[in-house]
Every structure is written in C-alpha cells, then in structure tokens.
Specification:
Elements: E1 5-8, H1 18-34, E2 37-42, H2 52-65, E3 71-74, H3 79-91, E4 95-98, H4 102-114, H5 130-138, E5 144-147, E6 153-158, E7 162-167, E8 175-177, H6 186-195, E9 200-204, H7 211-220, E10 227-231, E11 234-236, H8 251-256, H9 261-270, H10 283-288, E12 300-302, H11 304-316, H12 320-329, H13 335-342, H14 352-360, H15 370-378, H16 389-401, H17 406-417, H18 425-441
Parallel strand pairs: 1-2, 2-3, 9-10, 11-12
Antiparallel strand pairs: 4-5, 5-8, 6-7
EC number: 6.1.1.17
Function: Catalyzes the attachment of glutamate to tRNA(Glu) in a two-step reaction: glutamate is first activated by ATP to form Glu-AMP and then transferred to the acceptor end of tRNA(Glu).
Family: Belongs to the class-I aminoacyl-tRNA synthetase family. Glutamate--tRNA ligase type 1 subfamily.
Length: 446
C-alpha cells in the first residue's frame, strides 16, 4: 500500500467532543502507523457560523491528544478552486440550474409520497427552455445548482463495511450550490480531496449514503476515487447521539477537568471494536490496535464512567518521571517516594496536590480515642523512618494496648491524615515524618 494521505475535516462552529475525537484519532493513527500524512481541513465555508477561536481550540485539542496535523487547510481560503470545478461541471452538463423554491419542493415531495412514489427530485428543471429560465430570473428567482447523477448501482469496497453499494436512481440529484452562490459541504470536500491527493476517507457511518454521489462527482472531475471507510458512531449509554451541545464532553472540557489524553484516545479508538477497551499509554501501540475489519457495525456506546476508570488506570501505572513537571507546577513534587505512595489512590494527577497537603500539612487531626492515641504517640519509634516503620510501630501499639485490626489502624489514620481512607500508611508515614506525626497525634494542626 502506498503511504496514505488522510484528513480530519471539522467545521469550526463549536468545540469538538469525544465523538469527533474518534475519526480524528482513527485517521491520524492510521497515517502514523503507515508513515502517511494527516491533514486537518477546516470546513469553514459557512463564514457566518465559523469562528477562528473554535479553529484554534481544535488545533489545541488535537495537539493535546498527541496527533498534531502535518498540514492545515482552510476551505475559506480556497474558493477559487471550487469555482473552477463548478465551471467544469457546468460545461460538461453535469451541473444544472433549478429554480424551485423550498416551498415548491416540499409540496412536490408531499404529493409524490401521497401517490406512493419515492420523494426524489423529478429533474423538472432539465425541461426548462432558455426563455423560461430568463422569465424566472426576471421574476427575481436565482437558481440553485444540482449535480446530475448517472442512475446506476454504485459499488465500492468499504474498509469497515466491506462490499457496499447504493442505487443512485433512488436518490435526488444533490444540490451543490445554493441560490446565493454559497457551497454546500459536498463539492468543496471533494475538490479538496482531489487537490490534496487524499487516498483514504475515514469517517462516520452517517456519511455512507453520501458515498455513491461523491464517487460520481470524483469521476466527473476526472479524479481517482479514494478508499472509503465508515466507522460506527459514538452514542451516549442511552443511545443518544453526541453533539456539540454536550459541552462537558468537549475535549477542551475534558482537558480542563484533568483527564489524561491517553484515556480519551484509548476509549475513542477501542470502543465499538473487537479489541477490549483498556488504557493504552502509547499512541504507537494504540495505532497498531486499529483494525478496520473488526469494527462493529453497531453504534459504540460511550460511558463517561469508563473514561474516568481508564484515566485512573493510566495514572496508577505512571512513572514519577512522567509526572514530575506537572507535580512541580502544582507545588506538590514530593519526589518519587511520594508519587509511588499516592498514585494508586488518584483518579486524576491534579488530585496529588491534596495528598501533598496531607503529607506536609497543616491538617487538622481527627482524634476519636484520646487515651489510645496518646499511648500510640508515646510508642513512636525514633528516626530515621522508612517503609518498615509503620509495621514496627503498630505491632508495638498492639502489644501495649491489646487493640488490633480496624480498631487499631483507623484511629491512627484519622489522627495522622484526618481522613478515613487513603494511601498505605507504610509509605505515607515516612513522608509525614516524626515531627509532624507527633504533633498530629497530640491533636495539633500540623
């Protein structure tokens, strides 16, 4: 296989979410694995709704995921090549002017349905004479432009779905240019794919029905048709489609919430495939797990809880070197011993700051049995302390008081940390140190 050139083509009309991350990652990691090129193409021909701030945030989001594009293209800067393609299609008779209003088309559609006919455009505009067109334009009508399909069974081999076909006689000739001269999605997308030499179009399965039309436009423009692959869409656990209105699932929000990009990438790529969903820390490894032949045909359900579980699993395996800079940025760099002590109790790296407070203080100790805690305080071993100190100390307290099990450990944990749960005190106690431990056991904030 020649090196692939693929693209991710969002509209910068809002922030992208985890559902958008799925095709972005599938394309970028496929190109990465095969030594290809990943293009970010902004479909921003809707100048009123497209905003540069959203485009900028998308680039930040992709960089955060670890998949910065090799090339960035903006459709708003490429109208000249779209105009040229329109002229060519008109000259060859594949693009024709239509003058019906939206209301007239809707009335015609309802009439066809009432007669038991498929509600497709009847090509009435092709029967207009030049004089009739002049008269319509004199009335103030401006044409929209449709691509005339060749009615046939359009066949292609889909990377995901295998042998696929659509009978184009069941489709209306698609509108490519609106009355005001602006373009719908289809034409600029195809012209860009041709110009950028896109080899593979990997996208959501909601585009399957568009493929037959697009194949014919590629061919009409004399271009090689790319390989198509339609991956299943992400839905919520209740089956609702993901959309930009679910703001808390935007990549920006997930990043700001302290989630790891590898957790988002692992779930977005593996869910809905034959691979078990698991935390994959390395993007090269994740790329090797992509197998288009083994992606389910059913929608893939995104479970937000699963995302947080993957995040925790990643953190529990992270080395100190991987987080050292981030710990320092939050003034919580207690060294490797601190990180290894607390990482198993973290859901997010940012939570480390709370445990650094527990170690360094000041905290308010919780004393539930003054006499028992005083006895334990008197038995504290001398410095230096290490990971064996907790066992040595608690065995001495048990022997002196006769108290064991939870009744022994819980009062000490509450006094030393102010919390009922947390990291193993065998690792935490040396970090707290003799001075703070003695003060806390005495009931003092330290």
């Amino acid at each position: 296989m020649s090196k692939p050139i693929v693209r991710f083509a969002p509209s910068p009309t809002g922030r992208i979410h985890i559902g958008n991350a799925r095709p972005a990652l599938m394309n970028a990691l496929f190109a990465r694995r095969e030594g290809g090129v990943f293009v970010l193409r902004f479909d921003d021909t809707d100048l009123a709704r497209s905003k540069r701030e959203y485009a900028d945030s998308i680039e930040v989001d992709l960089a955060w995921l670890g998949i910065p594009p090799d090339m960035v293209v903006r459709q708003s800067e490429r109208f000249e090549i779209y105009d040229d393609a329109v002229a060519r299609l008109r000259d060859m008779g594949r693009l024709y002017a239509c003058y019906e209003t939206a209301e007239e088309l809707e009335f015609r559609r309802k009439r066809q349905l009432a007669r038991g006919l498929p509600p497709i455009y009847d090509r009435a505009a092709l029967k207009l004479s030049p004089d009739e067109k002049v008269q319509l334009e004199a009335e103030g009508r401006r044409p929209h432009w449709r691509f005339r399909l060749d009615h046939r069974n359009e066949v292609w081999h889909d990377l995901v779905r295998g042998p696929s076909h659509v009978d184009t006689s069941s489709l209306s000739d698609p509108i490519l240019v609106r009355e005001d001269g602006t373009y719908l999605y289809t034409l600029p997308s195809i012209v860009d794919d041709i110009d950028l030499k896109i080899t593979h179009v990997i996208r959501g399965e909601d585009h399957v029905t568009n493929t037959a039309v697009q194949i014919q436009i590629f061919e009409a423009l004399g271009a090689k048709v790319p390989i198509f692959g339609h991956i299943n869409l992400l839905t919520t656990t209740s089956g609702e489609g993901l959309s930009k209105r679910l703001g808390h699932l935007s990549l920006t929000s997930l990043r700001e919430a302290g989630l790891e990009p590898q957790a988002v990438a692992s779930l977005a790529v593996l869910v809905g495939s034959a691979e078990s969903v698991r935390a994959v820390a390395d993007l090269d490894e994740l790329a090797r797990l992509i197998d288009f032949d083994h992606i389910s045909r059913s929608p893939a359900k995104f479970d937000e809880n699963e995302l947080y579980n993957l995040n925790a699993r990643l953190i529990h395996d992270m080395s100190y070197e991987a987080v050292k800079t981030r710990l320092a940025a939050m003034d919580a760099d207690g060294g490797e011993a601190f990180w290894l002590a607390i990482r198993g109790n973290l859901a997010k790296v940012v939570d480390a700051a709370g445990w650094w407070v527990v170690v360094r203080g000041p905290i308010t100790p919780v004393i539930v049995d003054r006499a028992f805690v005083d006895a334990a305080c008197n038995l504290l071993p001398p410095a230096p302390w290490d990971t064996t100190t907790w066992k040595t100390w608690t065995e001495a307290v048990k022997e002196a008081t006769g108290i064991k099990g939870k009744a022994l450990f819980m009062p000490l944990r509450l006094a030393l940390t102010g919390m009922e749960h947390g990291p193993e005190l065998a690792a935490l106690l040396p970090l707290i140190g003799p001075e703070r431990a003695r003060a806390r056991l005495s009931g003092k904030a330290a």
